[in-house]
Amino acid sequence: MAYKGLVAAAFTLATLANAKPLNRRVACADGRSASNEVCCQLFPLVDIIQEKLFDGGECGEEVHESLRLTFHDAIGFSPTAGGGGADGSIIAFADTETAFHANGGIDEIVDAQTQFIADNNVTISPGDFIQLAGAVGVANCPGAPRIPYFFGRPAPKAASPDGMIPEPFDSVDKILARFSDAGFSSAEVIALLASHSVAAADTVDPTIPGTPFDSTPGLFDSQFFVEVQLKGTAFPGTPDNEGESKSPAAGEMRIQSDEALARDSRTACEWQSFVDNHDKLMSAFSDAMVKMSVLGHDIKDLVDCSEVIPETTPLPADAGPHLLPATTMDDIEQACADTPFPTLTALPGPATSIPPVPPS
């Protein structure tokens, strides 16, 4: 598209040089208040993001893709191999980075956000915008934490190197090594995978876009961690697809790397710990997301503008970890050697097909 080739210099950072948090709140022009005056410009931007990018505040396809983009931009960082981390290079150097194999399908949300930036005269850096959109979007999903947001990333200087983004068919060894190189523990890797609770696959099998990774893609809950632990059958359609694995239900997709991480001795117990501990899930995901969102930057050089992120809503009263209809605890593939899998009951009724996430 016309805006796809925008270079980093096209984005300016509307902030004060070396701005530091104030000891008292300041009044913004729209009547809201912030801990630092540079955050005031973000309130109206968040309103526009909610209205125009997220269809009035929905937890839908654009949210899923914006959350994916936060990771694909940020993980392009290595102390040895280079990369600017969460700097917006995936937008500023889109022609280069969207061509990476691991970024298949990411061009749609890159184009959408680039167009949004141009149409709405957004004057913050692309790195700031990507992480802002991700934090705002996930806040729309019931059960999600309110992720702290830090502002002030400079414009990116270069494209990320290729080969930095883990892929669905990578081994656990390769995934953990790549994350370790970027500074993440194995527990933090599993916490970040909570994003798959509100995610869907468009390109693993392009004939069935919008295929969710669990049965509740509109909720930030632990069902993803339950359902990946269920026995599965070959996913219908194209069983030889690269990166494709088994699914416990029709209409649902499980990728190989998720299945492997759920069953590896280094990560299985952490995976299982999220099944019946939603508070831990929210806290661990929030902490890991903040760490990812500032990769390549010194957080002391950024301004805490967390107050601009919308308040979140809790899970519905009837939500909670459960087995899928027509399954039992015998269908759980126990992998944690330390503690038994939490005892769950199945939803009533026969086995059903999980509907796809509709396009926005």
TrEMBL record:
One Pfam family matching this protein: peroxidase
SS bond list: 28-40, 39-305, 59-141, 269-336
Zinc-finger is among the record's keywords: no
A single BP term in Gene Ontology: hydrogen peroxide catabolic process
A single GO molecular function term of this UniProt record: heme binding
Residue ranges occupied by any Plant heme peroxidase family profile domain in the UniProt entry: 67-309
Subcellular location: Secreted
Keywords attached to this entry: Calcium, Disulfide bond, Glycoprotein, Heme, Hydrogen peroxide, Iron, Metal-binding, Oxidoreductase, Peroxidase, Secreted, Signal
InterPro entries xrefs: Ccp1-like (IPR044831), Haem_peroxidase (IPR002016), Haem_peroxidase_sf (IPR010255), Ligninase (IPR001621), Ligninase_C (IPR024589), Peroxidases_AS (IPR019794), Peroxidases_heam-ligand_BS (IPR019793)
Predominant cellular place of this UniProt entry's protein: secreted
Sequence positions that bind Ca(2+) 1: 73, 85, 87, 89
UniProt-listed CDD domains: ligninase
Enzyme class at the top of the EC tree: oxidoreductase
Protein name: Peroxidase
Lineage: Eukaryota, Fungi, Dikarya, Basidiomycota, Agaricomycotina
